[in-house]
Each structure stands twice: as C-alpha cells, then as structure tokens.
Design goal:
alpha+beta, eight-stranded antiparallel beta barrel, rod-shaped
C-alpha cells in the first residue's frame, strides 16, 4: 500500500512539474525580452510576480520529489527485512506442524513390589546344622539342621531414575535408568534356635556346663539392597518392557552364619514390563535371579524372586 501511494505522489508531482515548466517557459522568455528594454510599462509588473511564484512552486515540487525518492530508497531494505522475517516465521511454523506429537511423561518412578521367592540352598539357625550323637535328628518335632523349606515371600520398594532416552545414542526410544531397590525376604518355616533340652543334657554330660536350652524360635529372613542399570524399551508407549543386564546387591542374612557372618554380596539379573493404566500410575511384573559371589560361612543366598509391582511416576 505504501508503494502505491508513493507511485501516485510521484506521478502527480511529475505531471505538475511538467505543466509548471511549460507555463514557466513563455513567461521566462517574456521576462528576458523585457530586460532588453530599459523602459518598461507598469502593467508588466504583475506578470513578474506570477512567474516568480510559479518558479518557487516548481522548486518546491522538485524538492518534494527528491525527498520521496530518497525515502523510497531507504524504506526498501526495511520492507525486505520484514518480508524475510515473515518467511522465516512461516517456515518455523510449518516445521512445528510437521513434527510428530510426543506426549510428555514423567520419566522417574517409585514402585512398591512383592511376590514369591525361592532359594537354591537351605537356611537355618545359628548352630545349624546340628546333630548331637545319641539324640538323633529331632528337636521338639522340628528336624535338626537347616530348614528344608526353600520357599519364601518378599516385599519391598525402589526408585527408577532416568539417565538417557536413546541408549546413549545407540537406539532410539530406549531409555536407560538407574534402579535403587530394597526388599525383605522371609522363609515360610521357623525352627528352634540353638540346642534343645536333650541336646543340652548330652553336652553337659561330656563335662560342659551349658545353661538351659534356648527354646525361642528364629525367623529365617534376608534383607537385600541393590543398585542396577535398567534398560527400558518403547519410550512414549503405555506398555514398556525392560531388562537388567547385571546389578550389584548386598544381602543381610538372619540368623547369621555359624561364624556370625551377616553380609553376603552378590549380583542380580532381571526382566520385566510395566503398563500405564492411568496418568502416571503403572502396574508391572518382574522376575529376578540372585547370584551370590560365594558361600558365606555355609550360607548361600542364591535364588529367584518373581512378583508384581505398583509404580508412581514423578
């Protein structure tokens, strides 16, 4: 719109300048002829003033025309710069519209888990396995030695902390997390801890002076604290499987071993999956194998756990 107005003004100014020049030329010739005569009549004086006024108007038009041309020359780069910005903005909007829509999710999680556990070896009390000659393998109806039951139940909790969204550049939509987990595991059977009354009597008959038998029951349990890398697939999907290639764990056993050792380090390997049921609420299931670095004074914590968990994203 500004260019059209400028062109219109320039056209009008050019036409006026042409017409003024045409009018000025005869008057200028007449003015020059009157200068040749030393005596002129008083009737020619008004025509001189008109010529001067017309010349002044022409000069003003020339000045305005030059100013318009100068303004047009300086305004052109500004208009072109604005046009470039508009074009750049259009390109950005087109790229945003073409990009896929990815739903934002909370990558970290706190979860509560529980389920079934099974140990590869048997566990018992402080003095197990204990078989006293002459008494046999009976202790108030419970077999002397380690507990035969290898089954257990567990409950625990943990945290997942997101570290990377593309497996450090190796695979898209594959998340790497750091898992910190702890759980409590308890075997299903309990037995008397220590020697029974008949066993104390036999030991004292050999010259020892042991106090009365300890008839309290000992709960065979285990506490596990683990830290593991977790690789989680299908980021952005409601269903997300995952694996733990290998993680480190430390187990606290109770009762302790015969040498009163309570700590047993080991490794864990896991596989599982979770599903987003509503907003940042998840349900999942997992299975893990626990491998101790070795038998700790006769106590072996190798085994498996399998169960479910409830997760909260944050």
């Amino acid at each position: 719109m500004t260019f059209k107005k400028t062109k219109l003004v320039l056209g009008i100014a050019t036409a006026a300048l042409t017409m003024g020049a045409a009018l000025v030329s005869p008057q200028a010739m007449a003015h020059k002829s009157t200068k040749k005569h030393s005596h002129s009549s008083s009737a020619a004086q008004p025509s001189y003033s008109k010529v001067d006024a017309l010349e002044a108007q022409v000069r003003m038009m020339q000045d305005e025309l030059a100013a318009l041309k100068s303004q047009q020359a300086t305004a052109a780069p500004v208009v072109s710069a604005d046009a470039a910005k508009v074009e750049e903005l259009d390109q950005w909007m087109a790229s945003v519209k073409a990009a896929p829509v990815i739903e934002k999710t909370k990558d970290n999680m706190m979860f509560f888990r529980g389920g079934y556990g099974h140990t590869n070896g048997t566990r018992g009390g402080t003095l197990d396995p204990t078989i006293v000659p002459g008494i046999g393998a009976s202790k108030s109806g419970v077999a002397v030695g380690p507990l035969a039951d290898k089954d257990a139940w567990y409950m625990g909790a943990g945290f997942d902390f997101s570290l990377n969204n593309n497996l450090f550049g190796l695979m898209d939509n594959t998340e790497v997390l750091a898992e910190l987990m702890f759980d409590y595991k308890e075997l299903g059977r309990r037995g008397n801890n220590g020697l029974s009354f008949p066993e104390v009597a036999v030991v004292n008959s050999l010259g020892f002076n042991m106090p009365a038998a300890n008839t309290k029951t000992a709960t065979v349990n285990q506490f596990t604290l683990a830290a593991s890398p977790k690789i989680k697939f299908l980021k952005g999907s409601s269903f997300r499987p995952w694996i733990i290639p290998v993680g480190f764990e430390i187990n606290v056993v109770s009762p302790p071993s015969d040498a009163i050792t309570v700590l047993s380090p080991g490794m864990q390997f896991g596989i599982g999956a979770d599903y987003k049921i509503w907003k940042d609420l998840y349900i999942g299931a997992d299975a893990r194998y626990h491998q101790a670095l070795g038998s700790i004074d006769g106590v072996n914590t190798n085994g498996v756990t399998a169960g479910g968990y409830l997760g909260l994203g944050f």
